[in-house]
Amino acid sequence: MSLRLDDSVVGNPRERALAATFLLWNRRSHYYLGLFLLFFCWLFVLTGLLLNHPRWQFAQFWPTRVQTTSEHQIVIRPMTTEGESAREAMRQSGLSGEIQWPPTQAASGPLKFQVSRPGLVADVTVDLASGHAVVQRSRLNVWGVMNQLHTFTGAPASDTRNERDWLLTTVWALSMDAVALGLIWMVISSYVMWCRLPTKRRGGIVALMLGFATCAAFVAGLRWLG
Amino acid sequence: MRRFYLITRELHLYLGLFLSPFILVFAASVLYLVHGLAHRPAPRSTDPARRVDNLALPPDLAAMQGRPRVDALRSVLDRLDVHGEVDFVRHIAKEHRLIVPVRLPGRDAIVDLDYEQRSATVTSKRQSFGDALIYLHKMPGPHNADVRGNSLLVRAWRIVADATAYLLMFLTVSGIYLWVALKAERRVGFALIAAGTVSFFGLVYVIAA
Questions:
Q1: Looking at CA atoms only, how far is residue B119 from chain A in angstroms?
Q2: Which residues of B touch A200 (CB under 8 A)?
Q3: What pTM was computed for the model?
């Protein structure tokens, strides 16, 4: 089967030039993207393995966490919302990160919430009346940082109490999007490059069909089983 | 050297093509995960609940814990025609009940088992395609490690997910090797590696430091 981009099919010189430019930049984008996203890919590949093998001893991070507790006297302006109070308490306690609210908050008790960012989990308790804040920090090792970077997207969609509230979480989430879209583009561009290699078509079709069949067995086939 | 280059190029091509559907699945599910596009529960309604009585249950089911209990439940689930990975088992001792959520990529089932009455109520729900992708992306994952992989599906998927990671690692390394051979692209390539390195470590530093 001939492809539209094949030199023999495209007769118009302008179309030919356009096709050649497209093919050149298709090829370049494949390895330019790959080189730019190299460390991002390595991070997600490595941490994917770590997440799937929680028993690997060398990558344990929770048992080796370093816990510290600090107390702070803070000033909270009256009439602010819980969120504003939490942000103010964090600022005065030297904390930054994503706020995680517990499912319920006692009506008359201290304000309690958790602040998290890769490598740090801090439980914060603030007595709004007295301005007394207690911060219990758990610092994780480098494996913990990497592990959390893999999953650091802010609140899960099912969590109605929490929402993404730290600018850097949004930046990291956008980076994840960029890596995902970059990989999708690299797959598409690889298909285009492969189609331009007539001698590799048969072997390529076999490899591609094997991949799709295996993948479909999990994604689609097992859905029908249910 | 030329032979090594050619072999690497062939492997990069064919392994990349084989792996491409898996890369698409993992990459597409990232978009669902990051933006919460597959809200649960899925819009499709729950299938009618069904009740099964006079079940033959393994002895000491209530006293069992962890993986042995999940393995013992497998024969019960087969009799109930419920297939998939047991997420966890919740024991409500006062009511003599075991609540067993069982998952396939596109379907949730909850088996409410009364081991005194030897009866079970099964409710199930189809999930969206996006939810199926998310499920596969997260499996086997770090949670409930002692019971995870209790179904053939997740055991097989663990192998596939690991293979995807190792092969992707190979594709990046072989890709670098193939790029190095392209002398005309070295300068731009080095600039992009540098830009990517600075972006990556800069971002990680401000987020985690």
A1: 22
A2: 13
A3: 0.88
Query: What is the predicted ipTM?
Result: 0.89
Cβ(B34)–Cβ(A153) under 8 Å?
yes
Which residues, 6+ apart, have CB-to-CB distance to A116 below 8 Å? Answer: A97, A98, A100, A122, A148
Q: Per the CB < 8 Å rule, is A204 touching B27?
A: no
Q: Which residue of B has its CA nearest to A53?
A: B142
The distance of A158 to chain B (nearest Cα, Å) reads 6
Q: How close B170 comes to chain A (CA, Å)?
A: 11
- Between CA B190 and CA A35 the distance in angstroms is 8
Interchain pair A54, B145: CB under 8 A: yes
> Could B21 and A214 be called an inter-chain contact, meaning their C-beta atoms sit closer than 8 Å?
yes
Dump pLDDT digits (tens) for B143-196.
Answer: 888 899 999 889 999 999 999 999 999 999 999 999 999 888 899 999 999 999
Chain A residues inside the 8 Å CB shell of B14: 203-204, 207
